[in-house]
Amino acid sequence: MSGSSSSEMSDKLERNRLGYWINHISKLLNRNLKKVSVDDLQQLKHSTSKLFQLVQQGDKTVKDNFTKQHTAVDTLIAVLQIVTCDQIVSNVINIFIEVVGKTQPNKRASVLVNHGLTTVVFQIMKLAHTGDISLPDDVLLSIHTLLSRVGHKDRKFAVKARLHQSLMLTLNMVKSNSHNFRNLQPLLSVLKMYTNNSVNASYLGKHNSINIMFKIVSACGRRHTVDLKLALENLNNMTKSKSNSARLIGMGGVPQLLALHADWQAMDVKHRFILIRKSVLNILKNITNLKSGQKALQEAGGIQILYENALEASDCRDMESMVLLATVIMRKCFPRNKLPIPSTLNPVLFPLPQSPSHTPECYFLPNFPANQAQASGLQSFGPFASRFSQTASLENFISDKVGRVCEAFKSLMQSGNVPVSESQSRGNGTDSEHSSLDDDDDIDSDDERFRTDQDEQFDDMPDCPEPAEKRTPDDLRMYETFFPELHEEPMPPVIQDRPMIRRSVSGFLTSRPSEFYGMKHTASDATLYDLHRRNGREFSPVCDLELKGKPDEKSVSAINLKTGSSVISLDLIGVRSAQHQPGGQSGGASTRRSHLPPATRPGKQRRRQSQSSQQVVRDSKRNGNTSRRLSSTRLDEGSVLTEGGNGSIVTFPAIEFEDGDQMTSQASDDFDDDFFEFGHDAQLFCQTAADTHSVHRFQKLAFPDLYGAKGAAKLTEFLVSRKFGVQRAKIFQDIDRMIHLDQLRDKVVYDLDFVVSDAGDKYTGAKSNLLNRDELRVGYVDAQADCLKFNAQFECGNLRKAIQVRRFEYDLILSPDINSNHHHQWFYFEVSNMVADQPYRFNIVNCEKLNSQFNYGMQPLMLSVMDSIEGSPCWVRSGTDVCYYKNHFMRNPNTTGGVKGKSYYTATFTITFKHSGDVCYISYHYPYSYTALKTHLKQWEKMYDPNLIYYRNQDLCTTLGGNSVPLLTITAQPRGSDKESLEEMRSRPYIFLSARVHPGESNASWIMKGTIDFLLSRKPQAQLVREMYIFKIVPMLNPDGVLNGNHRSSLVGEDLNRRWGKPCRILHPTIYHTKGLLLYLNMVNKTPMVFCDYHGHSRRKNIFMYGCAPSQSWIQNDVHNPCCTGNKFNDLSFKILPRLLNSTCPSFSLKNCNYVVEKAKENTARVVVWRQLNVVRSYTMESSYCGCDEGKYKDAHINTDMLEEMGHLFCETLIKLARQKGSSYDQQMPSLDVDSTATTSGGASSEIELDDVEEISSLSLRTEMRRRRSLMMRRTTNDNTET
Question: What angle do CA 261, 266, 268 make, to 5 degrees?
């Protein structure tokens, strides 16, 4: 008790003493405010001296109490304002220094700043600078010490210093104390706070501050690390100004900084002085913003120095920020190279017809030769070889012209005569390396930053929507033929026995036509090469294979790729099929064990056997091993047409296995009677491919397309977590390439430009009987080539050039869209001649987007022909070290709308192939070709049940490339042929679906396939939705783009999803006529209940929707459009379907849905159909290329099963939509009557009441549907018998 009481007494006494001297000083000031007498000055000196001693001797409590007494602080500040005596000023400044203390930050400094201390101190410094008062250096040093401790609490510190002319005073003191490191520290601290302001930094730079800082840096050495750090931080602040950076470069500061960095790198082994090294790198980063700085760093060997230092530090996680800074500097200093291609245009151009209403955008491209061709009166662009020489020289000339026009336009904008658009005012933006999302955009705007479309610029669009396109009723009557369900009497269904083509989980081998099995036992390219060499023939493993000559008895043996032994004998030339040989046997049969997946579906108990005419695959297990015998594989009775050429024939003999049993084909051992998926028909695919028309010349049919490869069934492929430092390691490898140029190969191994120019006018899309012979090539490695072999000359393929930069590293360049110079994203190519277990790095070097899902877990897709032959015929996610980053290739201003200095981006991945001599296909996403669609349409035609389903497949129009655009109509057959039944069918609401307007969005086609599969199935839910709606489907809006490997455009070089406002009938036929269908429905009061355009999205995960909300429109109070009825339920009903999908589909994400109507989207399908055609539920459905980040499929890659599942569930959700309040289904369709006794062709009604859907079990529904269909067939059969 005595101790605490004594301390309290001493504190009280101390406070009394401080209070006494403060009151005494206050009385002296109040005695004469204007002028202090000599006696008063003496007393102030004594009082402030005593006060300083008390504060100096006091503890923390005393100092805290001092700042809490506002009278004390204000009194001392008033002394500084009135008194000019240097001793009094020194005493007061020292008092404040003691009060603040050395610990930063603290509350005492804030109190002093709030009382205006910094302003008063700057006033004293101004008087000292102008000479109105004379203060010794020690007082000025004390002032700077005080400012260094309180300045960080004053937000306007730098501005106050400049206004009070204190900058030069501080700089002069720094100069005079450059070797007095004890005094230098507070001066440099204050100067650092000054230079945080860019105006101050520029001002000080003009007064030789850069040189002064360098002298201090040189003088500090390794001892005075605090002063060195402060000097470098000052240099860092100053060099943020371009003028200061130029001064530093001019005085030769770059080599000094590099030497300083190297010295500290070598000395600082324990990483204690990271901040010093980081400050040096920050200065280098600032000066390399200038081209002169980049040049100076290159000339000083800075790239190599930084590269070696960064490699040394890369293993330490504490040095990550240092390594990142060094990487940024080195990337800035890369030599900015152009892509090694002759032109930014696609190597192949397409001559366009002339249109009086629309001028194609490609005609405005500076290096597009259309104007030359038109001027010369030619109908085509002439020889491609001559075109390239013209284009290469023309591009440089036009580039200068574009630059001059841009400068003139810039001057107009500065003068205020031309408004600056939002996109222009944003500038180039920043390169985000840490976000997978850029803007909250539609997929339609995925490439908005790179577009040069005139109508995409906001300022080129009116402030209100353009008037809707007007077409007369006479114009729209042409579309009556596409609505047979409204104008024709339905044909009576024909009951016939249709082969039920089923597919099991292992469907590739068990349900495909038998031609694949013979392909499995064919000779390798090496064997073929030896045979041709012995016969004196030439053999090319790359070009088309044509087998000519007379029948030859010679044969070769296929090689077991694992053992090297001969496994079968294969007659190559002129071999007769087994059925034409004596005894029906093929010669040279040998045995081989086949590794086929089991033909059973897991989880099923039933086993059924197909009665179709196809051959059946049977599994027999013997001694624990699966032994099978393959029958001969044939197209057209055992004959297989080779790729290209004149249709030469290779016949594969029948093959027998050890057990001697004949092997027959078997449909899926188990299947669902209600819903099934047909197997892919390779023969039908070949026939269909011959009827397509492409601009590119194809060499072959791609193996995955020919055999209908899909994603791995029942296999979840999870997103890949990128390892730490992968992107940095890839960049370091690129830097190493720049440093060691002599170690690069730079060997062009594939060049589409050369192929096109070499062919000249002979390069056409004409083709005949293309097939695939990849099975003949597996196992062959051309050791002399010592490189991979590439090919993309097939449907949907996209690869322009492949360059071998190092032995196992390749730079790949993608082709832009035809008649365009940008849109590089979709890739699909073949690679062969690889060595097993060797990592190969692939760099796609001309990507355009700022970021990619490759940085967030996505992998490219790969299909191995050898794995397919051995039983794994599916696309799999492949590749390690996948990442995406900016590279050193510079974009041509012609591709960026005249903006200079933009760079391309690199998508890089490493693949280790399992088999030597394999043939592999690599793709951005699961391909879905135009030929695949046409093949599926023919298979759907054979598969659907006409007794239940009303199905029509019509050709809507023909594209510019000469390909037909299919239009599907799907609904339920009317219950009878009477008028009432027909009226019921015709009164059903319409659902309008479209897909693939952007060719690179193949995921949209897989969803569409799932939709059509469901609608043509016998599932009870499918029958119910058919009885509720009429579906109009355009499954592929851009066949030409899909065929030719485009990513976004049609053959016109334009985004068709920006042409819905006023499509051109000549140049945009698919959009023109699709919109015509919708206009016709609108005219006959059949406006669709739902319009949905399927798309893909490259920057988001999950599947989601974009809709149209008037409240979120770019037009204020956008309620004057036909969709706004004033009814709250109707106007908000567009949100119902996404909510239902969110609860139904596991891959759908409601939180990603958006209903914004942007100005730039006014000409998209979604907005035009909503605004002009009065469809409230007008959507764009977006599906991710990558995967999902929520729900059941969280962290999983999206695959074809998920996409097709989305198509199924979308249709099922339409049943629930009809039951929702505000869905308007009741207004468009009368309630279904469950008691209706009307039948279809004398059959039973298949109608089910809506309210009973969720109450009846799935089994009950199936049983009921089977019963009704059986009854219908029996009655129809009886009627035919009586007739």
Answer: 90
